[in-house]
Design a protein that fits this description.
This protein is mainly α and about 180 residues long. The protein is about 65% helix and about 0% strand. It is built from 6 helices and no strands. The longest helix has 24 residues, at about 145-170.
Length: about 180
């Protein structure tokens, strides 16, 4: 149980290295993917919601705040803005994701990918808007122009890829879809 926390730190460290060293060379439409935010979002979206977790459970919120702090720290390290803006924006995004997931938990299995994409779109726009507000308009990526659209679309496509990668790694992609010849 305690092993997941150092593994998450290593995961966010590796995604940070990948984001700042390799991904800028693969920019499409003059935009790069925010891999740290996508990793944060996928982990928060697929966070275990066992029966002993309630909306106000300490363990659930501790794990969430650990995700916020570890990913926010990495985003703060690589961002040109004051330290703490990304962490605060991720904390507010985390609370928004958990509130949305709490209200969608009844029918989440039916349209999981659609919920994932819609919540991701709202979250990435909200995160960019919060950074824009916190930095006094210095943060880029929230103007109503072609670059904002490209940023959102590019990150959403990468998040959709991360969604299916997560589902395949956890063996949930083909669960219950096997051909049953003998009963």
């Amino acid at each position: 149980m305690w092993l997941k926390y150092p593994l998450l730190c290593i995961l966010f460290f590796l995604t940070t290295l990948l984001q700042i060293s390799f991904l800028p060379r693969l920019g499409i439409w003059l935009e790069t993917v925010n891999l740290i935010f996508i990793t944060f979002f996928v982990l928060v979206f697929f966070e275990t919601t066992a029966t002993y977790y309630s909306f106000f459970s300490f363990h659930r919120w501790f794990f969430g705040f650990f995700l916020v702090l570890s990913s926010g720290l990495m985003l703060d390290i690589i961002s040109p803005y004051a330290f703490g803006y990304s962490s605060l924006a991720l904390l507010l995004v985390y609370i928004g994701i958990k509130i949305a997931s709490y209200f969608l938990k009844e029918s989440q299995d039916t349209y999981l990918f659609i919920y994932f994409v819609l919540i991701f779109l709202i979250s990435i726009i909200f995160y960019s808007l919060l950074l824009h507000v916190f930095t006094g308009g210095q943060a880029t990526g929230i103007y109503a122009d072609k670059n904002t659209f490209n940023y959102v679309v590019y990150n959403t496509l990468c998040a959709a890829l991360a969604f299916y990668l997560y589902k395949i790694l956890h063996g949930e992609y083909k669960k219950g879809k096997q051909l049953k010849l003998f009963r």
